[in-house]
Amino acid sequence: MIRRYQKVYYQAIADSQTIPIDCRPFIEYTPNIIEQSLQDILKNGGLNGGLNLLQQEIISLIRDNPYIKTFDIAQKLKRPVRTIENNLRTLREKAIIGRQGSKKSGRWIVNQSL
Fold first, then answer.
1. Residues in CB range of 13: below 8 A, 6 or more apart
2. What does the buried/exposed string (b/e) look like for 72-95 if buried means 16 or more CB atoms within 10 Å of the residue's CB?
3. Which helix (H) or strand (E) is 10 found in, with range?
4. SS3 label, residue 103
5. pTM exceeding the 0.85 threshold for the entire prediction
6. Any idea what DSSP says for residue 60?
7. For residue range 47-80, what is the model confidence (pLDDT) as tens digits?
8. Hey, how many other C-beta atoms are within 10 angstroms of the C-beta on 107?
9. CB of 97 within 8 A of CB of 112?
């Protein structure tokens, strides 16, 4: 958050340290930046576009091999199968991935370009 609004942040600190010391510029800056950051997060679907690191790794594996099995994803990512199943379900609920064909011989489809 600070990195994105770095110039304004440092200006608010500098303005707060003038003689006589007046913290109002920094106090006024803080809620505005927090509000702007929260709006950015909501607009973009959450942090990291709404996907956690594991979900991003799952999508990457699916892109590399649309026929990959849940068990193989779990092995490659060194995570429990149940964890992978839960994340696949979340990705499907968000309509980020889909499944075409049968459970045994079907393939995964990535619906959004991430």
1. 26
2. ebbeebeeeeeebeebbebbeeee
3. helix 6-16
4. coil
5. no
6. H
7. 556 788 999 999 999 999 999 999 999 999 999 9
8. 14
9. no
